[in-house]
């Protein structure tokens, strides 16, 4: 298996208080990993470190062959994150949400439109292509959020 995420001894402190202290992880292609812990345990900080959204105080990190945080933007172009709360636009349809999201990555409308059927099939939402977001169940919104994260991934 190929390692897609490798972190060694990640550390992050705020105001002298260690929030992440020596986290190491190796995640292979096709694996799924979850972070569990009580409030304040450093889960969000760890995710921000892994995505290169904040700079670690120490440790080494590689995401999809890119050194993070130095080349974090390149790595994030290939990463999808499903947040706890969706940020889908309720005024748009399912397909329109995918289209707008693809535009954020500079994709041409024709390129996005060509990917929409496969993304909707992947999320089991083909039958909801023209539905407005408020009509979707919570699970459907999460699946759409995941599909949206794959809009700019040519390998998905």
Whole-number average pLDDT?
A: 89
Q: Helix/strand/pairing class, anyone?
A: alpha+beta
The run of helices and strands is: EEHEEHHHH
Total count of strands: 4
Q: What is the fold-level CATH name, i.e. the topology of the largest domain?
A: Rossmann fold
The CATH class designation of the largest domain is Alpha Beta
**Can you give the helix content as a percent range?**
25-40%
| Helix run count | 5
Distance between the first and last residues' Cα? 18 Å
What's the architecture of the largest domain, going by CATH? 3-Layer(aba) Sandwich
Q: Kindly estimate the percentage of residues that lie in beta strands according to DSSP.
A: 15-25%
Features:
156 residues, alpha+beta, four-stranded antiparallel sheet, 4 strands, 32% helix
Quick overview:
The protein is an alpha+beta fold.
Explain this structure to me?
The protein has helices at about 45-50, 70-75, 95-105, 110-120, 140-150, and strands at about 5-15, 15-30, 60-65, 65-70. Strands 2-1-3-4 form a four-stranded antiparallel sheet. Helix 3 (about 95-105) packs across helix 4 (about 110-120) and helix 3 (about 95-105) packs parallel to helix 5. The protein has two domains: about 5-75, Rossmann fold, CATH 3.40.50; about 95-150. The mean pLDDT is about 90. It is of the alpha+beta class.
């Amino acid at each position: 298996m190929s390692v897609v995420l490798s972190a060694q001894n990640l550390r992050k402190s705020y105001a002298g208080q260690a929030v992440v202290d020596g986290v190491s992880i190796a995640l292979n292609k096709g694996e799924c990993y979850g972070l569990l812990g009580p409030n304040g345990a450093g889960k969000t900080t760890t995710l921000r470190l892994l995505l290169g959204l904040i700079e670690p105080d120490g440790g080494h990190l590689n995401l999809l062959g890119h050194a993070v945080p130095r080349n974090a933007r390149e790595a994030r172009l290939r990463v999808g994150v499903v947040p706890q709360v969706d940020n889908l636009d309720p005024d748009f349809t399912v397909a329109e949400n995918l289209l707008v999201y693809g535009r954020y990555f500079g994709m041409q409308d024709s390129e996005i439109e060509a990917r929409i059927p496969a993304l909707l099939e992947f999320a089991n939402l083909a039958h909801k292509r023209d539905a407005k977001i408020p009509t979707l169940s919570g699970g459907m919104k999460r699946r759409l959020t995941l599909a949206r994260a794959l809009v700019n991934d040519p390998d998905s």
